[in-house]
C-alpha cells in the first residue's frame, strides 16, 4: 500500500546525544518496507559524538557541509554526497560553522542499538 505524507507535517525532534542536532522520522520502522528513513538537521558547528549503530546507514547529503569520522578516517562531505556507514563502525559528525548540515538517512528495519563511545 502506498503512503504519502507531507514532510512539513512531521516534527523535528532533538537528538539527546547530539549538539544542535534534530531528527525528523519520515518513515517508521515496521512499515513493511524493509527499511525506514529519517532526516537529520545539524545547526552550524553542531554534531553527534563518536558512536556505533547495530545497523548499517545509507545517507544522502541534502544541504551544507560537515566533517564525518568513519572508523579511523575523516571525510569532508557536502550536498550531493552519498555516505555508507557499515553496521558497528564507529562514526561521528561535525557540521561546518558556515551553515546548517542536512542529510537523509536510510536504515534497515532491523532493531538498532546505539552505543556512545565518548
Portion of residues in beta strands equals over 45%
**Unreliable segments of 5+ consecutive residues:** none
CATH fold-level assignment: Jelly Rolls
CA-based shape: globular
Head-to-tail CA distance between termini: 42 Å
The helical percent reads under 10%
Supply the key terms:
mainly beta; Jelly Rolls; 118 residues; globular; 0% helix
Summarize the helices and strands and which ones pair or pack.
Layout: E1 13-14, E2 19-25, E3 35-53, E4 57-63, E5 65-70, E6 73-78, E7 82-85, E8 91-95, E9 101-108, E10 114-116
Antiparallel strand pairs: 1-2, 2-3, 3-8, 3-9, 3-10, 4-7, 4-9, 5-6, 5-8
Notes on the structure:
By secondary structure, this protein is an all-beta fold. It has one domain (12-113): Jelly Rolls. It is built from no helices and ten strands. It has strands at 13-14, 19-25, 35-53, 57-63, 65-70, 73-78, 82-85, 91-95, 101-108, 114-116. Strands 1, 2, 3, 4, 5, 6, 7, 8, 9 and 10 form a ten-stranded antiparallel sheet that branches. The radius of gyration is 14 Å and the shape is globular. The model has no long low-confidence stretch (mean pLDDT 93).
Give a concise summary.
The protein is mainly beta and 118 residues long. 0% of the residues lie in helices and 57% in strands. It is built from no helices and 10 strands.
Amino acid at each position: 500500500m502506498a503512503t504519502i505524507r507531507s514532510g512539513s507535517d512531521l516534527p523535528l525532534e532533538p537528538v539527546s546525544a547530539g549538539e544542535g542536532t534534530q531528527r525528523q522520522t519520515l518513515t517508521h520502522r515496521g512499515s513493511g518496507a524493509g527499511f525506514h528513513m529519517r532526516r537529520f538537521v545539524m545547526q552550524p558547528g553542531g554534531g553527534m559524538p563518536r558512536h556505533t549503530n547495530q545497523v548499517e546507514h545509507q545517507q544522502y547529503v541534502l544541504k551544507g557541509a560537515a566533517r564525518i569520522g568513519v572508523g579511523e578516517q575523516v571525510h569532508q562531505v557536502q550536498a550531493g554526497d552519498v555516505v555508507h556507514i557499515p553496521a558497528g563502525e564507529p562514526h561521528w559528525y561535525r557540521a561546518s560553522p558556515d551553515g546548517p548540515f542536512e542529510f537523509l538517512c536510510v536504515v534497515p528495519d532491523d532493531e538498532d542499538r546505539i552505543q556512545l563511545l565518548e
